[in-house]
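pinging the channel bc i need a second pair of eyes. not urgent but kinda urgent?? the chain im working w is below, pasted from the shared doc
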Amino acid sequence: MIGTSKINSHIGLILVVVIGILVAPSNVGTTDITLNLEPDTVWDDLVLVAGDSLSVFESPLKLDTKEKIMVVVTAYSSSIWETWGCPYTTASNSRVRDGVVANNMLPFGTKIRFPELFGEKVFVVEDRMHYRKGDYHFDIWFPSRSEALQFGVKQTIVEIVQ
């Protein structure tokens, strides 16, 4: 995983190049631009300037928590007896992979975290469970049945980030 300071330095370098290209007038020699690119700097928004217009893009590094809910978390794998239909396709018609969770309350594509269990790792709701599980139950996909069984059942807080 790439560290935050490494990502910030890459973003800073890209911005220096983009700003240098977009801001420097074509009929003047050079333009000096100075940016503070300390490793601990976190950029909340990226601004690109083109002509007389400004465009602001939210940084992918910024994930604000919208809501915290106490939930039950279990695990599942791509076993035929644990899934409905094709065991490798989610209810949102995507392929199962690390970071996929099933839930009946949140819309597909919702980004969540389980900070007590997985720290800052972000999961995406892309699957559903049987209706009897209710809204406050999350099922995390694991590559093997043994890993899913080893995870067991846990009660924790889920953070809805997007």
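so The first strand starts at residue 45 and ends at 50. and The first helix runs from residue 4 to 23. — does that match what u expected or am i reading it wrong
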